[in-house]
């Protein structure tokens, strides 16, 4: 579901598995021809932002993106508000500062802020054992059940792993009670506080823990969580347009449609992906204005843009404090000397002592980034209606490193590397597309039908498609007989159609899971 928490992208096209798990971090134009609305630069203490806005706008066009929004802020105000492109490919309505984007895993930092408000009121404690906060808590082992603390569940160092398909493809499936129960079934891959393991399931349980400690029942968790986020986080922080939602249609009128490239490199609209009970890990719908206000709250040490104290400075800073090292890449973070995950935030330290507190996010059709430099009183928001793989992170990496290099002399040359990596990723899709052909109806007829996990394999004419909930994954075939997703969430991912020992058809979504057919089509 979520774009993972490491800021180093490998120079080759990342797999979705790698992006989602956090072991990577972080443009040929396709003829959109969209005219971006004018930037609204303001002169801050560091000078005007017109030249920076012009370079960002040029990169947006060079990457052939559909819609994005960028803000630069300090504690006193918004220095730059830059909506770019259009909200969808059909209406061509322009993106505005109020256009809502799915901001995915940046929600984690908001969930930790919600928990911090409970700590402020002494309704919870960071070092309280989870089982003492909620007696129903169960981890995969008795030792973990009786040792994990509140802060551990909001970090990425419990040692608990999760299957790649669980929160990557099936996040819309479990109810909140089922999600809580599933924690005890997850594999343990390391001792606590020894390895960085990005885990949306553990984080979601941690997000629900304050409510469970207050007596909220499992069936009421999702609705109560949305209300608590509205009342304790979004509203007080000045995020008037934010809410928990995985599909904006029918809720707001000014919203972004996510996009993804196909195997020709052309952008295609993408269905909204489900979040469901995983909302604490990535369920926020918000605008550029909302996210700018949120980053300003961080710079103002817990005081909102209208002067309201939302959370104590002490407990807000506790969320920023790194607890487990996060890997970085010398290629994309040459000046970072240390990086670690806190509670919903990653903190990088640069060679000059400057720190960057940040998180990114990715879900079907959307990639997001928020970050701030507390010593410099400067923050950044980048929202992009582009699928996280294979190209989504490169725009925010360009913008972030343009800011770092131009203003502070850090990570020089990385914007150019981000641009080159974007071009390489698109070319990788085109190269794959040049080897992909339509599928053979005769070769696939015996595999059509319903499969475990909610999958369906269908055919309409020459078009073979794999379906999972609202997601459609069209398939083409490679010369060696394997199949490839031609557009959609898993564009470029390999799919294999095989049979088990008793002849039952199997679908392997390579890197995620293998499922058996349950019902064939007549």
UniProtKB/TrEMBL annotation:
<dbReference type="InterPro" id="IPR001466">
    <property type="entry name" value="Beta-lactam-related"/>
</dbReference>
<dbReference type="InterPro" id="IPR006311">
    <property type="entry name" value="TAT_signal"/>
</dbReference>
<dbReference type="Pfam" id="PF00144">
    <property type="entry name" value="Beta-lactamase"/>
</dbReference>
<protein>
    <recommendedName>
        <fullName>Beta-lactamase-related domain-containing protein</fullName>
    </recommendedName>
</protein>
<dbReference type="InterPro" id="IPR012338">
    <property type="entry name" value="Beta-lactam/transpept-like"/>
</dbReference>
<feature type="domain" description="Beta-lactamase-related">
    <location>
        <begin position="59"/>
        <end position="383"/>
    </location>
</feature>
<dbReference type="InterPro" id="IPR050491">
    <property type="entry name" value="AmpC-like"/>
</dbReference>
